[in-house]
Amino acid sequence: MEATASEQGRVYQAARDLTVNHHYPPTPEPDQIIEGDIPQRPPSFQPRPHLLQRLAGVLGDLAPGQSGDEDGGGNGGAAVICAVGGTPGVGKTILAASYAWACQAERWPVVAWIAAETTAQIHTGLASLAQRLGERRADDDAATAAARAKAWLAATERPALLVFDNAADPETIRRWCPATGATRVLITTRNRAFLRLFEPVEVEVFTPEQAEAFLHRRTGLDDPGGAEALADELGHLPLALDQAATVIARLRLSYETYLILLRDFPVADYLSAQHGDPYPAGTAEVILLSATQAETILPEATELLPLLAVLSPAGVPLPVLHALSAEGIERVRVQQLLADLTDTSLITFNEDGSAVLMHRLVQRVLRDRAAHQGHLNGVLSQAVNLLHAFNAALPDGAETWAARAAVEMLIDQTNTLYLWTQTGDGLSADLLSLRHWCGQYLYDLADLTRAIPLYEVTLADRERVLGANHPNTLASRNNLASAYRSAGDLGRAIPLYETTLADRERVLDTDHPSILASRNNLAGAYQAAGDLGRAIPLYGTTLADRERVLGTDHPDTLSSRNNLAYAYQAAGDLGRAIPLYETTLADSVRVLGADHPDTLSSRNNLASAYESAGDLGRAIPLYETTLADREQVLGADHPNTLDSRNNLAGAYQAAGDLGRAIPLHEVTLADSVRVLGTDHPNTLSSRNNLANAYQAAGDLGRAIPLYETTLADRERVMGGDHPDTLTSRNNLASAHQAAGDLGRAILLYEATLADSVRVLGTNHPTTQVVRNNLEVALQK
C-alpha cells in the first residue's frame, strides 16, 4: 500500500528570493580514516608476496612519502593508478585488501574502499568518504560530495589509498580518479580494458606449489598427491580451493573422498546448462557442495544464503539483515547464523564487522541454483520484504537527512534487486514501491540529480506493470512533478500536476486525500510560476475541502492554511496573510507541539510576513528564536535550520545591518554550491541574494557580475519566462541604474516589463515593481 508520506509539496515556507542551504561543520581530522567495506583477513588467507611486490613496484613502497612515480606524489606529480585484473575467483579483491591492510598498518591517514560496479555506488562511497574527511555538507547531492572527496584526494600531500573494487567501466573510473596528489589508486576488475589504460598487475590462479601449500595449511592433510589431484580438478582457482578446503576440514574428509563427492555431485539438479560466460572448471560443483553442506548443518541458511545472493555484492550492512526479525528470526540468531556461515567460507565480514560480503561468483552460482529450481522469484520477494521491513524503521520528511547512511543502504540494496528482477519474470508492485520510497528519500535530501531519473523510471515501470490509472502510478506522477517543480522546471511540473489531478478526480472518490494533495501541489506550482490568479482560488477551495473532510486540526489542513497565507503574502495582501499565519501558528503549537518541524516552519513564515510588512521589530526576534529552536530540535546542520539562517541574513539586510547580513549571505552561497550544485534553483537564489546585499553596500563591482552570471544561469536552467529569471533581469537592470548606466538599465527594464506582463499579468507584484523601476529610470 502506498504510504501517504510519499505525497510531496505539502508545506511551502514563506520567504523572499531566498534558499535552503546545508552545511556540515568540519570535523576534527582523526588519526586515521578507514572508509568502506574492506574485507576482513580470512582464516584461509594465502599470502602472495610476489604479487604484493608487483603492486609495490607500481604503487611504490608503503613508507609514507614514497611513490612509484618519479615525481614522488604530492601536489606536483600525477597520481599513481594501478589496475589489478584477472578472472573471477583468482583473488583480485583479497590482493587489493592485502595492500589496504598494509597501508593501515603503516598508519596511512586515509584508506578508502569504494564499490565500483555502478556510478551510483561510486558516488555513494566517495560521498561517505567526504563526510569522514569533513568535506561533506548536510543534505548533500551524492555526486557533489563525491567530487569534493576527489578534490581532497587530488590536493593532499599525505599518503592515501583509494581502492575501486570490481570496477566495470574504465571511463567512469577515469573521471573519479584524482589526477594529482599523493593518493595511490588501486582498481580491481574483470574488464581487461583497464589493464591497457592503467599500470597493470594481472592475478593468475595458484601455482601448483601455492595450491598444495594452501590445501595443506587449510586441511592439515599431509597428502601432496591428493592435494595435486584436487588442485588440478579445480584448475588451481583460489576461490574453489578455499571452498573445498573448508568442507574437507569441517567433515574431516580425505582429498580422495572429497573428489568422489565432488564428481558425484548432481550439478544438473541444481543448475541449467551455462550460456555465455561459463563457470571456471569445477567451481559450480564446489560452491554448491559447500552450500548444501552448510544448509544441512544450519537449516536457516537455506533462507539466508539465497537472500545474500540477490542483495548487493558490495556488501549487506548488518542493520538490513537485522530486519529479518520481522520475518521471525531474532537479531541474536541472525548474528550467530552469520558467524557460523563465515566458517563455511561462503560469506565473510568487512573489516569492521558492519557488513556481510559474499563473493560475486558464489552469488552467481546460488542465484542460478534458485532460478533452475524455480525459486528465484520467491527469493527476490523475500528480499523485497526484508527491505520493506528495514524501510519501515526509517524516518522521512524533515528527519531523512539524519538517516542518510541508512537511506543509502536501502538505495544500494534496492538497486541490486531491481537489476536481478530485470532479468527475471517481471517487476513486482512491492519492489516498485521500494523504488518509489528511494526516490522520496532522495527528494527529501534535495538530491534531485538522482531523484528525478529514479522517479521517471519508476513511473514508466508502474505505468507498464500497474496501469496508467493505478493509485500508485498516480502517486509516482505527483512526486515526479514535485521533483520537477523543486528543480525549477515548471514547464514540465505544471502539466504533469494538471493531468495527475484530472486522473485522480476521475479514478478516486471525490474527497479522496490524494485529490486534495494534488490540488494543493498544483496551486503551489501555479504560485511558483507567478500565476496567483489561479493559485489563490485553488488554495482556498483545497483548504475548505480539507476542513470539511479531514477536520480543522488535521496536519494537512494546517498546511493548507499556511500555503494560502503564503499566497496572500506573495500577492501583497498582508492584511489577510498575517492573521492567517498567526492563527495557523497557534493551532500548530496546540495540535503538533511547539517543537514540531511544521510548527517551526509556521514561525519562520510569520516572521517573513512581518518582514514583508516592514515590521522588523517583530520579524528579527522571531527569526532569531526560530533559528535557535531549530538548532536545538533539528540540529545546527539541518536544512530548515540553514533556511532560518538565510532568512535571518535577509532580515538583517532589510534592517540596514549589512555587517551581519553579507557574511551570512556569503556563507550561505558557498554552502549551497557545495551542497546542491551550481545550477540548483536554491543556489541561484542564494547568488541573487548575495548580489543584492553587495548592491545595498554600494559594492557594484561585485554585485553586477554576480547578477549577470545568475541571470545567465537562470535563463539556461529555468528558462527565460520563469518568475525567478524575470526577477534576475529586474535586479541586474537596477544594478546598472545604480552604476549610472541608464541606457542599459532602461532597455533591460523595458524588456523585463513586457515579459512580466505577458507571463505574470499586469497586476502581479513583480510586474508592478518592474513598471515602477522603469518609470523612475525614465525620469532620470
UniProtKB/TrEMBL annotation:
GO terms for molecular function: ADP binding. Signal peptide: none annotated. Residues 81-215 form the NB-ARC domain. Residues 294-370 form the DUF7779 domain. It holds the Pfam family DUF7779. This is Tetratricopeptide repeat protein. It comes from Nonomuraea glycinis. The lineage of its organism: Bacteria, Bacillati, Actinomycetota, Actinomycetes, Streptosporangiales.
